Amino acid sequence: MVAPVRGTHRLLPYVLVCSTLAVVGVLYEESLVVPSLLLASVAVLMRHYASLAAAALSRLSVEARVEAATEGSDVRVGFELRNPTRVPVILGEYSLSYSPLLRLRGPSKAGLLVVPPSGAVEITFTFGGRVGRYRVGPLRVVARDPLGLFRSVEVEVCGPLEVRVLPTVEPVSVRRLWVPTRRSGLVGTRHPGTGTVLYDVREYGPGDELRSVVWRLLASRGLLAVKEMERETYQHVVFVVDSTRDMWVGPPGRTPAEHFSRIAASVSYYLCARGYSVSALVFSEREVFSSGRPSWGREGFRRVIGALSNLEYVEDSGRGVDFGRVLSGLLSLLPRERAVVFLLTRPAGLREELAARLSEVLGSRGHVLFLVTPLLPSYEVADAPPWVRSLYRLKLYGVLKEDLESVGRLGRRGVRVVAVDPTYAPQRLVRIVEELL
């Protein structure tokens, strides 16, 4: 379908000049008639060219590509516009829509382009990477004539694209947590029992197997003793991450949602290497995403960060969270054995009731719930005027006060709460998991 063409704000002055020259030429000076006719002919030609260029826009073929990795690295979205006709688009205006959380580094979201006949032109947009799922597009183009007298309506040459950015594993946090990996996929409990790691050597007792006897000790000292191994077990860990609108308030890269993703990714990396089974569930006002049943090793970690890449900022603030879907989604992925569930959210508002409800339901099924909320530090906004910095600190103080009041109420209702600086959250969570073995 050919895009319709309409006149711009320049057309009316142009027509007035042509008409004036024609009237003056007819009444007073005949030599002005020819220039007026030439100017009118030029306008007709521009109108005809704008129609041809609009037709060429309607037939453009577009190939889009997305290059996205982890947060902190650049996200590149490229569009190759190929013109199959012999009409060049000499003056095209493009405009790109994208999520308000993305920061465009170049080029401008609106500009000019030239598409040669039977040729192609490429535009590559670069964004700063933030963890989550974002919308880039649609890309729209308008055709104009060289004089700017006529323009086509906007033609959507490419629809919205989905960009997913994975969370980063914080190296400092992992180094603090790291211990040698168990190939068996089992986790040491630091208690005696059946396992593959030596726990202690003790005196022989009734019921001990002969294969456990330390014969060297018997031969050298005449002491009958046996080896006692460290008991090993499985532990399931589930991360429930809140990605609702309130979780995206703050400086870029330092919002609660982004802190949650880094905490869950770092702890999952460590736990998967240690042999734990992990899974994750992410919810927003629009959808609930799950990594599936708990799994371990590389596959478990891959599934968790894949689920965390579905963090999204829903622009429609009128929507609410369907907590029933969140609860049913969580229960569908929990195993029969006991699991440790970490709910990463701010507890204020309706989430306080969600945490209390989850704690009650999971406790009745033998699982353990911990609500994890970050105590966000105050970041210096160096480029902002003093009144903006003061307003930011006041707002942050109000948020912390509200969260701590909710934490106190949840504690009185029997909900386990971990309120800690995001820097130290991974150590706290790992300590909780190991103490529950």
Description:
The protein has 437 residues and is an alpha+beta fold. It has 4 domains: 5-57; 64-143 and 154-164, Immunoglobulins (Immunoglobulin-like, Sandwich), CATH 2.60.40; 171-178 and 235-435, Rossmann fold (3-Layer(aba) Sandwich); 187-233, no CATH class. It is built from 10 helices and 19 strands. Strand 15 (277-283) and strand 16 (288-290) form a beta hairpin. The radius of gyration is 33 Å and the shape is elongated. The relative contact order is 0.10. Residues 179-187 have low confidence and may be disordered.
Major sheet description: 6 strands, mixed
What is the number of strand segments? 19
Strand order of the largest sheet: 16-15-14-17-18-19
Helix content: 25-40%
Helix segment tally:
10
Structural domains: how many: 4
* Relevant CATH superfamily of the largest domain: von Willebrand factor, type A domain
Instruction: Tell me the β content.
Output: 25-35%
Q: Whole-Å distance between the termini? A: 66 Å
CATH-derived architecture of the largest domain: 3-Layer(aba) Sandwich
Judged by helices, strands and strand pairing, the structural class is: alpha+beta
- What is the fold named in CATH at topology level of the largest domain? Rossmann fold
